[in-house]
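hey
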């Protein structure tokens, strides 16, 4: 082409959660029976959406109005309902904007930022955020570190230092409960982050998609409860909590829009960009108030929280026994992250691979990996030898080697089988050809 067509941030687009499945599908073709623990889709893992929720959706789908466009910001009835649910807040329905899933919202948040304006995010980082932010800037995502040896909590002093000495940082991203670690931010740390944003004239972005799936001793605190007068965008949705990922229904709650003229214009640009798409999915917005206000919904959520808490405890106990691995019991969401001790992974390690086509597929993929992707190498061999697909932690924008698995398997025996596989495969891999 006579002009370069590729955006300079194109190389920053990476979503290992789905990319690793490409090798898994080739291994399936070669005869490996796969167990997928890479994607956080409760429905795909076998969770049954309650019949009463399906009946609510079916009744709404019978109404022709649910097939029409929704207004740009979303149905007023849904926005009014959500605004009234925010305790002690003056959130207005006009401060709620619906999107086609939070992926759409995340894209708009970063695309509409001025190119030099950066968002400081956690590491490990959920790749939808880190990739979108990096691509927007045409540079690697800026991060603050979550410490696996301190319950995955962030170092607030480190956040303050990075904000202080980088004037291009315009916002701080908080994923709470966190993906991939399952950490829930304590109220005191949230308040410190709000104070930093206030001091340095930043706004906050809080991805709270797992807000209703917190089950640890640390109570979940919505950012809206502590944000004060600091401008903020809070992201929520139906995909994880109903669960209804196929609905593609997420929304942004805008806090303190009027506190800063520049922030107000930025939010308006997000709405303007959304206006070009006409509107977001109508059916889930139509049924949202009926589902979320039903007394059965609270009981349904509680049963899911209890199940994830049990899975988290069991997995932590089982995998925490492995020498060379570090496991922190998650307190929210439905993931568990395992990290390997520094220097414990090397190119000489492996697991038995058979038949020959399986060995060839794994070795062909592994030989392409660099020194910062040794955890990905482990995941490749794990897939080839056992059929278990987990996500390497290097795919979450971190130098910490490890992997993320889900806690979604509803069958206790199958979940225990997954833990048994890991309990045997990890030590075997670490011992093999160790140098």
């Amino acid at each position: 082409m006579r002009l370069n067509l590729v955006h300079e941030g194109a190389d920053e687009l990476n979503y290992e959660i789905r990319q690793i499945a490409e090798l898994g599908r080739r291994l399936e073709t070669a005869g490996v029976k796969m167990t997928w623990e890479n994607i956080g889709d409760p429905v795909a893992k076998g969770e049954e959406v309650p019949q009463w929720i399906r009946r609510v959706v079916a009744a709404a789908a019978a109404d022709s109005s649910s097939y029409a466009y929704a207004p740009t910001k979303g149905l007023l009835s849904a926005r009014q309902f959500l605004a009234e649910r925010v305790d002690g807040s003056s959130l207005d329905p006009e401060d709620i904007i619906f999107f086609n899933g939070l992926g759409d919202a995340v894209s708009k948040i970063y695309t509409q930022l001025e190119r030099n304006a950066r968002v400081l995010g956690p590491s490990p980082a959920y790749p939808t955020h880190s990739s979108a932010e990096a691509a927007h800037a045409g540079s690697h995502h800026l991060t603050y570190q979550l410490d696996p040896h301190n319950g995955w909590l962030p170092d607030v002093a480190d956040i303050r230092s990075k904000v202080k000495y980088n004037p291009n940082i315009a916002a701080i991203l908080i994923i709470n409960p966190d993906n991939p670690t399952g950490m829930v931010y304590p109220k005191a740390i949230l308040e410190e982050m709000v104070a930093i944003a206030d001091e340095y004239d930043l706004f906050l972005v809080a991805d709270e998609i797992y807000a209703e799936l917190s089950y640890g001793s640390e109570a979940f605190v919505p950012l809206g409860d502590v944000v004060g007068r600091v401008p903020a965008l809070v992201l929520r949705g139906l995909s994880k909590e109903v669960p209804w990922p196929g609905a593609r229904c997420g929304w942004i709650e805008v806090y303190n829009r009027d506190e800063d003229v520049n922030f107000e214009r930025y939010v308006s640009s997000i709405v303007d960009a959304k206006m070009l798409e006409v509107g977001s999915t109508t059916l889930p917005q139509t049924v949202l108030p009926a589902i979320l206000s039903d007394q059965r919904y609270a009981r349904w959520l509680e049963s899911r929280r209890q199940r994830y808490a049990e899975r988290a405890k069991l997995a932590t106990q089982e995998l925490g026994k492995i020498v060379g691995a570090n496991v922190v019991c998650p307190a929210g969401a439905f993931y568990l992250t395992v990290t390997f001790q520094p220097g414990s992974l090397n190119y000489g390690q492996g697991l038995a691979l058979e038949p020959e086509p399986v060995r060839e597929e794994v070795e062909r993929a592994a030989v392409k990996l660099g020194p910062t992707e040794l955890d990905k190498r482990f995941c490749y061999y794990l897939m080839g030898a056992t059929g278990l697909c987990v996500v390497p932690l290097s795919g979450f924008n971190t130098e910490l080697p490890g992997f993320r698995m889900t806690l979604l398997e509803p069958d206790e025996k199958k979940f225990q089988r997954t833990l048994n596989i890991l309990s045997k495969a990890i030590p075997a891999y670490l011992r093999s050809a160790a140098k």
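Residues 78 and 286 are 7 Å apart (CA to CA). Residues 10-47+298-431 form a domain with the Aspartate Aminotransferase, domain 1 fold (CATH 3.90.1150.10).
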